[in-house]
Amino acid sequence: MSTRRITLDLHPIFNRGDRIDAALRDAMDEAEARKAKELEIICGKGSGALKKRVLRFLDRRDVRERYHRVDKDPRNHGRVFVHFRWRRGQ
Q1: Could you report how far apart the first and last alpha carbons of the chain are, in Å?
Q2: Residue 1: pLDDT band by 50, 70, 90 thresholds?
Q3: What pTM was estimated for this model as a whole?
Q4: Nearest Cα to Cα of residue 39 among 74, 67, 60, 78
Q5: Within a domain: residue 89?
Q6: Is 68 within a domain?
């Protein structure tokens, strides 16, 4: 089982909607390919619009099936953690 953690920083593309969704999809694909335990998404504190967009993406049915749970960092409101659970043989 992997203890890998993947980090996706959305600061460089915060105002590029099409690239945000593509980056989130790519990060989810990488997490699955590497059997990562956690994906850290850094969306920044700002107005909260980017974080809301990330949470809406993660709440889509096709995406929700790919991970175990989502946590918002209570000490840093600009981060979201996506946790994965892998079974043996997966």
Answers
A1: 10
A2: very low
A3: 0.88
A4: 67
A5: no
A6: yes
